[in-house]
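Morning. Coffee machine broken again, so started the prediction first thing and wrote up yesterday's gels while waiting. Chain of 399 residues, entered below exactly as on the submission form.
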Amino acid sequence: MTIELEAWSERVVALTSGQATTVADVGLVRVLVDEPPDRWRLAAESRVGVARGDDWELRVNPRLAIPRLMFLLSYAADPRGWRDVGPTFAAEDDLFTAVASAFAVHAERALSPAPIRGYVNLEDRSTVLRGRLRMADQLARWPAQPIPLEIAHDDFTADVPENQLVRGAAELLLRMPLLPFRVRRRLLRIRATLEDVTPSPPAASVDVPALTRLNVRYRGALVLARLILQGCSISTRAGKASGISFVFDMNSVFENFLSVTLKAAIERHGGRLDPQHRREHLDLQKRIRLIPDLTWWKGGTCRAVIDAKYKPLTDQQFPNADAYQMLAYCTALDLDRGYLVYAKDAGEADRNHTIKNAGKVIHVRAIDVERPPADVLTQVERLACAIAETTRGAASAAA
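Came back before lunch.
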């Protein structure tokens, strides 16, 4: 059974209680009771992707076109390498297939003509001395015995971090059914090429090796491998895999993209842009902690606070909770203005909200992520200039 819906939409479906529980576990949608015992309401919000169990598959499609979404993802992962990754998404209309297909292409290129190799320090047990003897381990484990020997040596091997990331991503993708045959065939070749390499496990945060002249050909493959390993998860129950998911939270995607692009743009005006600043509290007792997405510091003073939101920005229904949140940030940081930055649909206008009896202004700005990548980056540059100019003017007026 395949269930398909769009982000920020709902659908009522028939599921058993076991299926509903597993769907809820993977976290792609909220699962609510509609009509007991077997009708459930699936509510999609900002998370997009695909999840699959033993007898069901759930797909939540983004409203944003696949190439535009993958630009946001790949740019946040590697601002220098997104141009190498982006063009391979144009032919696909499904998020998961687009990622898998692009990864397979870039991984094959990276591994041709052969995987890179490097020296890795290994600890081993042997009957002959190779490298150096680990004396402490030898005496602790084999006192008064000549063999075996506890040794450490360097091995020139393909089991290096670059290949581990590629192998780990390929393994995860192969566990997802319904991949196109052409993509699965490529992934199987990649796994066979790296059969002696230890696969990297999925994780919330994945470290990618620095690019050098030796591994630069891995750039595209590493960008995508990182996205896959951070986006995939396997839920288990009773000792077996019960659900596999490949999920992106569009709120996090947009926040990460804005952090990377705005940091580069605004720091040209001096100071530094801090993501997830955690030192402020709303109350004097320091029990109400505030965590704004971005804060700009210059000369030891916070000059601006910015919060990123992936929501439709409409004149008819402005999210009041976002305004309350920004007002709290401005109050705690002693700022007279703050910036709410939305990913918007085309044709919507920016605006300002002056708060009564508070002397504070909330600037609402929008980045049209449906535009071509160069235009999106230009919009971020203009936003950075506007923030710097506005805060400079406010500081001059205060002086």
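DSSP finds eleven helices and 19 strands in the chain. Going to sketch it on the whiteboard this afternoon.
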